[in-house]
Amino acid sequence: MPLDYTNSVPLYIQLKDRIEEKVLHGTYTGKVPSERELMDEYYISRSTVRQAFDALTREGRLSKNREKELLSL
């Protein structure tokens, strides 16, 4: 399901929220999908995915390593 381009909320925030939702519902466990997988799933650019990852990392919810491991929600 694509993100809402007409929404006033930035795409990277929408993606960050989707990732958090999927973790809470058990869709993602241990690590999030790759940048490429998220780009393809949500029809967004790599920079949007990286902004979402950076936001999750700043909040302490994602460990920024090759595996993009989830820390907590």
TrEMBL record:
Residues 15-68 form the HTH gntR-type domain. SUPFAM superfamilies: Winged helix' DNA-binding domain. It comes from the Bacteria. Pfam families: GntR. Keywords: DNA-binding, Transcription, Transcription regulation. SMART domains: HTH_GNTR. CDD domains: WHTH_GntR (cd07377). This is GntR family transcriptional regulator.
